[in-house]
Amino acid sequence: MAVGASSAAAARPAADLAVVDSNQDDPRMWWYEFATSEIGWNPRVNVLLPDDYHTSGRTYPVLYLLHGGGIGQNFTAFDALGIREKTAGRPLIVVMPDGGSAGWYSNPVTSHTGPRNWESFHIHQLLPWVESTFRAHTSMDGRAVSGFSMGGFGALKYAAKYHGHFGSVSAHSGPASLRRDFGAVAHWANLSSAAVELGTGTVYGVPWDEARVSADNAVENIERYRGKRVFLAAGTSPEPIHINPGDSINETHVLAGQREFKAALDNAGIAHDSHEAPGGHFVRPELLQADIDGVVATLRGA
Predict the structure, then answer these.
(1) Under CATH, domain 17-298 is a member of which superfamily?
(2) Cα–Cα distance between 220 and 110 in angstroms, integer?
(3) Over residues 61-90, mean pLDDT
(4) Name one Pfam family in it (predicted).
(5) For a surface tag, which of 51, 55, 105, 116 has the fewest beta carbons within 10 Å of its beta carbon?
(6) Of residues 247, 248, 272, 274, which has the active-site annotation?
(7) Is 281 a catalytic residue?
(8) What are the two backbone dihedrals, phi and then psi, of residue 297, each rounded to the nearest 5 degrees?
(9) Are 91 and 79 in contact (CB under 8 A)?
(10) Is 139 part of the annotated catalytic residue set?
């Protein structure tokens, strides 16, 4: 179903992506369920439309907003955090996809639960589908990616690895360094994915696929953030982050990794907007609002 599709130049969605269910009863928040060969179950996506989408005829920038890890974390996470109110009156489409309880926005090295290629689903299927279905800008300066925790990691990864896709990137308590502290975050990604996502399979393999770790590691890809809006937020309290029983990492690791990343950006002369606030691992409403306002101010207008 086309909903005021963008120009004919918009990318076409992959042939093996199909909408199997949807609901457009709400004037702004529409959801879709997909069948795709990249994921072994049917992932869902919330698409939040601007207030005037149905009457304006305009084309809008798009924010891809990625949820964190943990049992029960899914495409509805940011609706529960008030995303409708935070975008009211703003000319912005917000796309909030499933990313798995511990999918790490990656194509894993191994999976024993069927395909879990979240990276391919988001970049090669979902993004083209959005741009062929909605009146969405289709250039780098019309797209942003942001996320919380695991989703913040995914945002940093996608913005660097797919450099020409996103003009703005944000990480709310998102890890920016996989190798520091003896590889704490990379080990955490492997342990959590093995426990709740991949049936003992892992994102990075055992031993690690070092090339994959480097490709996903923000601090090893500093130049790929040049020319982008970069927004970072982290807590200063050592609150544990839990994805599954017996597996936790400390917000201290996240904060230290973001500081390492910020220092590398500074050394390279790459501008960024960074915030450290009291408390542990959670989305700070005021910083999420500031991030959304910054996205709207930065991206190509409606």
Answers:
(1) Alpha/Beta hydrolase fold, catalytic domain (3.40.50.1820)
(2) 24
(3) 97
(4) Esterase
(5) 55
(6) 247
(7) yes
(8) -70, -25
(9) no
(10) no
The pLDDT tens digits for 124-177 are: 999 999 999 999 999 999 999 999 999 999 999 999 999 999 999 999 999 999
CA–CA dist 298, 188 (Å, integer): 33
**Sequence ranges of the domains in the chain:** 17-298
Measure the CA–CA gap between 84 and 52, rounded to whole angstroms. Answer: 13
Mean pLDDT over 259-270 rounds to: 98
- In the residue annotation, 52 being an active-site residue is answered as no
Measured CA to CA in angstroms, residue 143 lies from 45, 63, 114, 215, 300 at distances of 17, 6, 31, 21, 8
E strand or H helix at 216, and its extent? helix 210-216
Single-letter code of the amino acid located at 260: E
Q: Name the burial class of residue 9, with classes exposed (0-12), middle (13-18) and buried (19+) by CB atoms within 10 angstroms of its CB.
A: exposed
- Residue in the structure block whose two tokens are 């309290």: 237
Burial letters 157-195, b for 16+ CB under 10 A, else e = bbbbebbeebbbbbbbbbbbbbbbbebbbbbbbbbbbbb
Sequence-separated (6 or more) residues with CB below 8 Å from residue 159: 145, 165, 166, 169, 224, 225, 228
What are the angstrom distances between the C-alpha of 12 and each of 94, 155, 208?
Answer: 19, 23, 34
User: Residue 148 has what DSSP assignment?
Assistant: E
Q: Which of 149, 168, 173, 177 is the catalytic position?
A: 149
Q: If you average pLDDT over residues 18-44, what whole number do you get?
A: 98
